[in-house]
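Translate structure to sequence.
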């Protein structure tokens, strides 16, 4: 391996590996630092990919156990092979991480194995070996946020990482945090047989999402059997011989109650991983949350040092990091690049899925923007009925004067796929009428998007 590079990327998650590959494609000599034994960062190893594998597997188990009879399919005694399911999850992770390793070799990106640290201008230390670089990109991602007084041991009190590899289905699982990670992993274990209780500090699950979607999600998840304890806070969680004993209080204050669980999942968010990178010694500025400060082109206050992904401001999403990595590589090549952060879609991979892009109704009201709303339920869609997935709706928000689409909020089957049409439409400044007048194949779930667009002006057909 060379000792001098045009670009060294610290971190091989979605932002880091995409940045490294794109830079190499553009003719730069590139290295990527990764301390794990496998590439791909949190997302591929202990986050997005393994969680989606378990979500998919647990959905199929639940269908086989409880839903097949609706299709006229009779099954014998369906049994859960948890070890086999975990083996499947691990095989998915291995295929993805090896795929990144193949892409590095294909594009001649050097993998510098070890922990990276910036030691000076254009200098990166990797486990005692020094490398030079014209430019350095910090792409180290994020880490689990803990709670004061609660020690995560990854056995009884687990983070998302521990929740992905439990050796048996807990009888009672308490999830602290009703956000994306908490609801996804809570769903997995509920389907596999656990009694799941989600404790959320605010008055509704999925904070930050459209209020109407949150209410619908609350109703659906309760119907599925997940218990929701809202406006509540966990003040302590201690391991005992039998499991975990928790103390829970109302968020507004009041008398505490004791709860017991076999396993507790702490899912209260993530924080930028910037420790041990030597940022202080070289003067790279961070904000009050430990995130690296950057300008509109990912540049830090130190010449030649850039940052992308979870370590900078913005949503902690893999696809956001990927776009930043791709664009930064092109900026370093002398090209121009821009991301509209209002058009970064968000998806929750529960059943039903939840997806959103753009503004919520609450945000538009707060900003004083006059808008119209069009909503259409999956219940009224032929394909949704045919596949027995009728929960939820699509809601499109459009400017009252110009009809420009300002946001879209979906709860229902394949929401994460359906939202892409709206993202493209908004990227090109489309109106709700543009979507409504575009021919959508029948019978498909996409027709619900068209009907929601028609509904903005009261023109929906199938209701």
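Result:
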């Amino acid at each position: 391996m060379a000792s001098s590079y045009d670009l060294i990327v610290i971190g091989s998650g979605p932002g880091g590996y995409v940045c490294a590959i794109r830079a190499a494609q553009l003719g730069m000599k590139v290295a990527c630092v990764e301390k794990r034994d496998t590439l791909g960062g949190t997302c591929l190893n202990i986050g997005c990919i393994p969680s989606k594998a378990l979500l998919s597997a647990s959905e199929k188990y639940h269908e086989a156990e409880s839903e097949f009879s609706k299709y006229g399919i009779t099954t014998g005694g369906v049994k859960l092979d948890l070890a086999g399911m975990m083996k499947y999850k691990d095989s998915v992770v291995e295929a993805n991480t090896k795929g990144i390793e193949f892409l590095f070799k294909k594009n001649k990106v050097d993998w510098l194995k070890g922990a990276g640290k910036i030691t000076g201008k254009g200098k990166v230390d990797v486990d005692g070996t020094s490398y030079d670089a014209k430019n350095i990109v910090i792409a180290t991602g994020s880490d689990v946020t803990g709670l004061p007084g609660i020690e995560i041991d990854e056995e009884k009190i687990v983070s998302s990482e521990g929740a992905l590899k439990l050796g048996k289905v807990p009888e009672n699982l308490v999830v602290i945090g009703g956000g994306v990670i908490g609801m996804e992993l809570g769903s997995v274990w509920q389907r596999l047989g656990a009694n799941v209780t989600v404790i959320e500090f605010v008055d509704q699950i999925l904070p930050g999402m459209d209020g109407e979607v949150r209410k619908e999600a609350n109703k659906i998840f309760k119907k599925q059997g997940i218990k929701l304890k809202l406006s509540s806070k966990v003040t302590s969680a201690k391991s005992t011989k039998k499991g975990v004993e928790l103390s829970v209080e109302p968020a507004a204050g009041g008398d505490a109650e004791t709860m017991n669980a076999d396993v507790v999942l702490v899912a209260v968010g993530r924080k930028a991983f910037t420790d041990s990178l030597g940022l202080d010694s070289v003067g790279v500025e961070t904000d009050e949350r430990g995130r690296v400060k950057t300008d509109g082109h990912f540049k830090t206050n130190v010449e030649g040092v850039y940052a992308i992904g979870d370590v900078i401001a913005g949503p902690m999403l893999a696809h956001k990091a990927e776009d930043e990595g791709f664009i930064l590589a092109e900026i370093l090549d002398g090209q121009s690049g821009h991301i509209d952060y209002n058009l970064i879609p968000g998806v929750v991979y529960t059943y039903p899925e939840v997806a959103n892009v753009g503004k919520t109704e609450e945000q538009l009201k707060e900003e004083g923007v006059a808008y119209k709303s069009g909503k259409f339920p999956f219940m009224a869609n032929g394909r949704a009925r045919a596949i027995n997935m009728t929960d939820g709706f699509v809601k499109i928000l459009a400017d009252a004067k110009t009809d420009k689409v300002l946001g879209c909020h979906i709860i229902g089957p394949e929401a994460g796929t359906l939202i892409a049409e709206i993202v493209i439409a908004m990227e090109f400044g489309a109106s709700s009428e543009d979507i409504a007048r575009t021919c959508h194949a029948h019978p498909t779930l996409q027709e619900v998007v068209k009907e929601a667009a028609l509904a903005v002006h009261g023109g929906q057909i199938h209701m």
